[in-house]
Amino acid sequence: xxxxxxxxxxxxxxxGGSCRRQxxxxxxxxCAKPPRSSAFSVPAPLTPDASIYQLPGVWLDQHNHSVxxxxxxxxxxxxxxxxxxxxxACPRLxxxxxxxxxxxxxxxxxxxxxxxxxxxxxxxxPARLQQxxxxxxxxxxWVLLHGNAEEVRQLSMLLNVSYQPAADGNFNHSNAVxxxxxQGTPRQTLExxxxxxxxxxxxxxxxxxx
Amino acid sequence: MKTLVxxxxxxxxxxxxxxxxxxxxxxxxxxxPFLQTGARPSKITVADFYLDKHAVTNAEFLQFVRANPSWxxxxxxxxxxxxxxxxxxxxxxxxxxxxxxxxxxxxxxxFAADAYCRWKGNRLPTMTEWEYAAGAAxxxxxxxxxxxxxxxxxxxxWYDHPAPSxxxxxxxxxxxxxxxxDMHGLVWEWVEDxxxxxxxxxxxxxxxxxxxxxxxxxxxxxxAYMRFALRQSLRAEYTVRTLGFRCARDIAPRDIVKK
Lengths: 210, 259
What we know:
The structure holds 2 protein chains of 2 kinds. By secondary structure, chain A is an alpha/beta fold. Chain A has 6 helices and 9 strands, in the order H-E-E-E-H-H-E-H-E-H-E-E-E-E-H.
């Protein structure tokens, strides 16, 4: 029985694993996610002053330039929090963002940016982020940000991303791609690792005209 | 002779590291986190740290708001605090009922608590630090020696009673063996990484459900379930009438990346 259980755990680790080293427990049915609504809308922001660009702080981008979040203003931004040593979930998030970029029409592309923010304040310095951008073939529309631990935690609060450092230097984290409107207000969150590029593209189309 | 004593006092006081006022040095130790996530070892070592002896009071928070007008009730940005922020105060810089001055400040968001601690040169305690510090047994609660079992009973008794309209003052419930007051029994408290709770399935959703107890260190620690469920339900801009905070500080300066 015990062997059967551990086999089951292994199977889950293989199929459903993320950046975690081990799968923790099987998903009980009561914890299962509700089916995603297929109805399409971009909900209005809850408050008029909900831009995350109000977060003070100076970040470093992959070119080692100091930037404030406010420099992202003016474009629709597609944002994810990742770390570059992440083996499984983060590459999928990045791939989803690349899929979004590839699916946009030529006229749309100039108005959309892509932002990756690292949890890993220790290892993901600007040089490492630059290397990652090259490995992933990220173009000039992408900004990769290194911040200090406080800034990263504050931003995670605004994006509603959960994360926890693991003992081995990696991070457990929830998976989300957040779409910000041109003022920096989160307007849609694509949660989990199933691709939602089509939904994102419709959202971006609407937000670009706002 | 007098000068000699004064001199020796001076040299001793210079050599001793300054104990931040109002804080208690918590000796580190090995701690078994309540939530066992699989990615962390089942026991973690906590380093020494300082923690406020009691929760931040309304009067203390008023000083912060005076010094930082952007945290006034009428000025605060909505993403940093919801519309109930400091709603129990009579005005921007008016606590209202003077009896509340020494009560823990509540109706403050995580962002406000975080900003207060930074203003003081401190930080919020991590969830691990807070749980480690709060797990210590009460000292002479109800006039006798106490154990961790008494702590559970104390917490459940607290849960049993609705919070009064004016919260009792700080240092009015019990002191624990670390010398900390009211770690339970007065208000809930924000922690720095309250949003680090990840449900077992890696997606959004409650972790407390039928089979959820698989991942906990003590399946009978109901009080801890309540605490973790509350944290899970929070967002950083939320304010709650029974949720306050206290600050922590590293013993050695924290490794902060300066740019």
